[in-house]
Amino acid sequence: MTDDPRPEPSWIALVEVRPLDDCDILGDAVGAFAHFVARCRSRDALLERLERRCDEEGLELVAVAWVQDADRLIAEGHLAENVRDVLEFPHLVEPGAFVGFHTWERDDDASDVA
In this structure, what are the phi and psi dihedrals at residue 68, rounded to the nearest 5 degrees? Predict the structure, then answer.
């Protein structure tokens, strides 16, 4: 039996995250949207890696807006070059990688709605 030389499929998710107490990956931001990419066997495997990476980075996973087949999006020309580039580096996408945090700061003028 030989190893299958084909790479696992590429997956991408749009997620919302917030930093936990010991997290400094987002600087002073109170939250962010980001793409998360990985090469893995399925959508469920991507979500498992996402949860593990959030734990490792000290992030709370607030929401997953969507998960899509990144290979299909690449073939259709719908994925940005920076995301395509990350997928070319197995050492980044093996554990899963966040791409392009879009952060927001605390709005001190806004009141919390309970």
Answer: -140, 160
Q: What is the pLDDT of residues 41-90, one digit of tens each?
A: 999 999 999 999 999 999 999 999 999 999 999 999 998 888 888 888 87
Q: Where is 95: in which H helix or E strand?
A: none
Please, is 59 exposed, middle or buried when counting C-beta atoms within 10 Å of its C-beta (0-12, 13-18, 19+)? buried
Strand order in 10-19's β-sheet? 59-69, 10-19, 31-39, 97-104
Relative to beta strand 31-39, strand 97-104 is antiparallel
DSSP category for residue 35: E
CA-closest candidate to residue 10, choices 40, 31, 48: 40
C-alpha of 52 from chain center? 11
Strands (E), 20-96: 31-39, 59-69
* ∠ Cα 28 32 36 (to 5°): 130
